Amino acid sequence: MAASNTPPASATQIKVGAEQFDTYLPLLSGKRVALVVNQSALVTNSEPEPSGDGEDNSTGLPSTTKQHLLDALLARNINVVSIMSPEHGFRGDKDAGEKIDSNIDIQTGLPIHSLYGKTKKPSVAMLENIDTVIFDIQDVGVRFYTYLSTLHYVIEAAFEQGVDVIVLDRPNPNIAYVNGPLLTPPFKSFIGMHPIPVLHGMTLGELAKMIVGEGWIDTDKRATLTVVSVANYTRTTLYSLPVAPSPNLPNDNAIRLYPTLCFFEGTSVSIGRGTDLPFQLIGHPVAKLGNSRIKVNANHGASNPKHKGTTLFAQTLVANSYASELSSVQDSQAQMLISEPQIIGGSTTPNVRTNTSSKARKPKEKIAQKPVAKNAISSSISGLNIQTLLDTFNAVKLANETFFTRPDFFDKLAGNSSLREAIVAGKNADEIYESWQADIVKFKAQRAPYLLYSEQAQHTSK
What we know:
Layout: H1 21-24, E1 32-37, E2 42-48, E3 62-68, H2 69-75, E4 79-85, E5 103-104, E6 111-114, H3 124-127, E7 132-136, H4 147-160, E8 164-168, E9 179-182, E10 197-199, H5 204-213, E11 225-228, H6 252-261, E12 281-284, E13 292-295, E14 311-316, E15 318-319, E16 341-344, E17 347-350, E18 380-381, H7 386-398, H8 407-414, H9 418-424, H10 429-434, H11 437-447
Helix pairs in contact: 4-5
């Protein structure tokens, strides 16, 4: 579920690509269609609100519900013949990295072909007797989120077989940020296939156009690529996701923190898998990264989490770009209070954690402050926050613990080895950011022809 039950006012007027039936249904007439979708492929279904006597009410006000794209297309007599599902499965309930088998959808009887496991690219057999593939999956705007790689392989395989592709675009909740190192060829993998920054500031529809336009697919064959853009959407439009895009990104806060916290997957630091706050905390069983004591156990979406069965010294986080938008925080562990001061970059600042309830303590209230070690971690971050990586690296090092437990995986996430090497070498955040600025400038110029939404100033987070 999204962090806020009521979407921001700026998001109420947008229409995702899948909801613009008049635009793409004519392209499906008489076609055999395959869908690449998961639980995020929802459309608004508005019907007249019935009155108490069983007849339509006199106001004619619609009752708005969400319907899966598969059901919406079948109701419109579109000949959907198969489904393809990405990482986490058709229902979006599988663990990260869990191998997924193909099966049958119980409700419709349609075959579901897995695109995560031993087969990541649609096979010739999957595309046999298919005229058009529709791709509709919610992304979060980060290069290593694997739905982008699935999109790449879908386009490549479809073009090889002369099958047209329609991408039904959706907003990027991290579109405000273009930041991070660009991927270099030796580090190409399923968690990073393209020479783009970690935060690319593009939607999947825009990236689909770029993948084809830049010749990144491994085939010279071409079919038709159609992107149905999001109506009334700009690069400054706030968007609260109506459904979690994957099990460990349960709300908007986790989605905003994901670009930074995912790097800890290559380290000894937990980001909350196996707790009630996945991608909303940093913790370690030895290094005191925070004052909270949080137990790690297997749970839905994390059957074998890092530090399973241990208790972490943890700090819960709130993305500062999102803190003002939060109307509530469901888990008491994420409530923010003024606590002991943090020592960040040599200066002492209060460790402010947000609690938007009426009982939250106001920042001006004075409380007893205790001295803290220099390994304290900032609790409010956004975009790609290198300082958080540096502070945490130093805290773990101070505890005589190994930080980079999976250096090769960390490098795959970064897209090169330079970030890890800079952290080990003691580079400061400004030096690290500066190291990729020239590449960011070139990338922005390269992507410009493919942008579908009005360009606004974007952030380089520090």
